[in-house]
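Comment thread on ticket #2218

A.B. wrote:
> Attaching the input chain for the structure job we discussed in standup.
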Amino acid sequence: MKTYVIVLAISLVASACAVPSAVVPSASVVPGTTAVSSVVATSSPTVSARPMAYRVLSGVPGNAVASPDGRWIAAPEPSPTEKTPYQPALLLFSADGMLVKKIAFSGGQWSWLLDSSGIFVALSLPQAPAPLGIIELDGRVTTTEVQQSHATLSRDGKWILAERTEGCCASVTQREIYVSARDGSSARQLVRSAQTVALLGIDPSERVVYRDGNGVARVPLAGDSTEIVATAGDLARTIPGTPSPDGSVMLIRGYEPARWYIFANDRLTPWADTVGNIVEDGNGIAMRDGPNAMWIGPHTLLVRDNSAALFAYDALTSTRVPFGARLVIGDVILARQAGTLLALRGQHAVVIDLVTGAARDTGLDIGNETRGVLSSALPTGGFLLSNAYATYRID
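C.D. wrote:
> Ran it. Output below, let me know if you need it in another format.
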């Protein structure tokens, strides 16, 4: 349910892919306890002198993101430096960086659909969430009957879910959730509340999970009766986090004060400091929407303790298993691929082995503008990394 902000040609993006469960250390544990493993975090992370290979995708501009299946790359066309009439366009490339399509669009928010079948895109640049369109892979633009407000796709790829907003500018509120067919038609109201609602995700049974005031509610996509499944006194001051890849866990981020909630197994639980700290997604989009977690499995989070040692935390069983890696102060985690993490260490991109703790410098210095760096883990292996000016492939 993330969106990418593009003003002229500047976008903030993130992408999430599940890591095979084999990369998470296994251990026999009792739910609610900390697992014991022979893997011990290294005491002093080092970076190897031999850099990893990377290459510039010379035809791909900056602010690029790969599709979840790794077959495509999308990027906004840079605006010309001279003062000439300019129609913003989104560029679609093959995975090797060859231009496939150039599609005119409004220059607003955009994001890949979770099944890689197209790109959600704002059809205008208003002061409130815009009408939602879909850029299809053949270049067509499908107009939908819903808004681009936390829009997401159902797990079977047949339906679009989105909030519907009221008001404008700083006075926007959401009290409805709409559902429409994937082709944008047949929109209908699924949720209407007297309180503010926030779309949290879709669970494995294709039920829509959302925050309704101080409660967590759930309703089937078919539109049966709504049930309140959990409550908390201060839940109204929260925003959605990234749901787990399998939809079994919903994260909720509180603000003023900052805090996390986890909704899993039909229970809403405040995040316990004794578990550690959730490692947050360092992509530019996370800095816009607020902190988002780094998922490393179907329902497993990456966490760190006070010494920066890394652990896998299963949010369904409440178990924690240590990795052999630890972070350095200031590390920003961008993506994970199998048993490795891509991180920014200062201005340098490094790849960290989760099991051994070894870190390898890519030799890539991304410059001073680190807040807008975007990265995607490629299912075929390696990473795509993009700043405001260029896009790189790291293998």
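A.B. wrote:
> Thanks. Noting for the ticket: The helical segments are 284-289.
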